[in-house]
Amino acid sequence: MRTPSLYSQDDPITAALKPSPTETDLERQERLEAEAEAKRISEQIDDDLKEERELLRRKKGDVKLLLLGQAESGKSTLQKQFQLMYKPSSIEQERASWTTVIYFNVVHSLKHILSILDNYDDSLEGADATGDETTPRKTNGTPESASPPSSILDEARNGALHIANLRRRLSPLVATDEQLANRLTGGITVSGSGKGSVYVRSGWQARTIESALGKMKKHRPSVEEERATRENLAQDPLVKEIGRMLQLCESDIQELWNHPTVKGLMAKRKLKLDEWSEFFLRHIDRVAAPDYVPTTDDILHARIQTMGVAEHTFDVNLHGKDVTWHLYDVGGARGQRHTWVPYFDDANAIIFVAPVSAFDQYLEEDPRTNRIDDSLQLFTQICSNALLKNVHLVLFLNKTDLLRAKLDKGLRVKK
Ligand SMILES: Nc1nc2c(ncn2[C@@H]2O[C@H](COP(=O)(O)OP(=O)(O)OP(=O)(O)O)[C@@H](O)[C@H]2O)c(=O)[nH]1
Ligand SMILES: [Mg+2]
């Protein structure tokens, strides 16, 4: 059998360079050696170019900074804060695209609350759900709990009926969950990453706006165009429709959010809501208002998972010297961590983001693993990675506000 040649079989250049049918063994040997040498030289040129680019970057004093840490640790939020500090105009350019994420966060939270309520026996536990310890409890048919007073049963039935009505009225809004997810991901789903998570790739903000406009922008938009784009995004039929539904459902959302059963389940930690869920439900009057435009605080609270690695560049003036920072924001879920390694090579610094409030939480992608345990393991792996031995490492203990709130509520850290 012949050794495969570098030439492909059917393009004209291949035909011209094709070995002669009368090629001798010696000629063939020489040709293959010449091809191998050409390949080696071509690869060498590629390597040299890469090295040259790298040298140029280093010579210019560019800094390569990696943001690492588990999912939900706050890497993208930290990146947004860098963006606000060093490139505020880019936040303005993408402000409109965050509406889609925030609507998605609200719809997803409602879906989660309703699914927990679904598994909960409202008719019997409704009265107890206020968290009031003096109210009789259901205890598997023991004599003292066999027949709660009829007033309590009536109250529970009314509560259940109220929730059933809210569920019915909110169902068209909740049903938009998938469409919003598709709009954000461009139809790409990531399997094996927990409860149907939605991930976005680098540049999703521009793509969201483009798909809302139905065309690709070929140039950097002017201020005027940006304003028009923002207005256009509000005209995006999907965003517009969900905005309208939110407006119509605002009082239903308020009622559900303030319902004693929901509050009771939250108090008993049978219903656990993520911090962004609580934030947007608390501010639903603003989010559901007509012509809603996300505030910067809303953008910082919005939650969407990062897929792969997203590069952000910032020109920073440090002590009178201009330095370009290349910030790499990675996806932190377990299924995403393999994408980090190619960036270790020439990194200057790492900010490892560890959410200290997560002591009572478990990984979305592996509900048996405590998030602090995972964070510690990951940090240990990063510290012992040979590729990173000369890299500056910053440990960023994040979400201290949430830790304080949990401790103030009486939650205790257990080993
Ligand atoms: N209260 C509070 N919330 C925070 C803090 N830092 C981040 N968050 C919130 O935590 C959520 C998750 O943050 P992200 O920045 O998306 O997490 P990530 O590390 O990028 O997650 P992946 O992209 O999945 O790896 C967002 O809703 C943020 O608003 C903080 O210090 N305090
Ligand atoms: Mg992220």
From TrEMBL:
Single GO BP term: adenylate cyclase-modulating G protein-coupled receptor signaling pathway
Name of this chain's protein: Guanine nucleotide-binding protein alpha-1 subunit
Alphabetical list of InterPro entries matching this protein: Gprotein_alpha_su, GproteinA_insert, P-loop_NTPase
Compositionally biased region (Basic and acidic residues): 25-39
UniProt lineage: Eukaryota, Fungi, Dikarya, Basidiomycota, Agaricomycotina
Species assigned in the record: Coprinopsis marcescibilis
Any one cellular-component term (Gene Ontology): heterotrimeric G-protein complex
Region: Disordered, residue numbers: 1-39, 127-152
Record key words, sorted: GTP-binding, Magnesium, Metal-binding, Nucleotide-binding, Transducer
